[in-house]
Amino acid sequence: MMRTWKGFCIIVVVTLSISGCGSSKTNTAPANSYTPTLEVSTTVNGDAATLRITTDLKLSKEHYDQQRKQGEGHVHVSLDKREKEVMTTTEKGYEHLSKGPHELKVSLHNNDHTPYDVSKTITFEVK
Known about the structure:
By secondary structure, this protein is α+β, with helices and mostly antiparallel strands. The protein has one helix at residues 2-21, and strands at residues 39-45, 48-54, 58-59, 72-79, 85-87, 91-94, 100-110, 115-126. Strands 3, 4, 5, 7 and 8 form a 5-stranded mixed beta sheet that branches. A 3-stranded antiparallel beta sheet has the order 1-2-6, with no helix packed on it. The radius of gyration is 26 Å and the shape is elongated.
């Protein structure tokens, strides 16, 4: 009798454990639905260029490299496929550029560096 009762208890515990794992996914966090806007332009003056960024993302120097906060972050910029630079402002100047075409890739990122999947690539020419 004791052996039967013990076996029954094990079956009940296992059944409850399995059913608990299959619960609905109401506890999962919703996907990040915020998508920031991004507009990028350059002004060329001689061998210098100024990059201007317009976005509704709050650029945060204070929270850079910290926890993700929706609607806040920073910008990654790469000129001519060089190493990326980080910006927490809306303007960046480039000086002593070579003559010819140049490419700027700009992308928006969370404080923790995960991408917002918003980017623009523009080209400009130094004459």
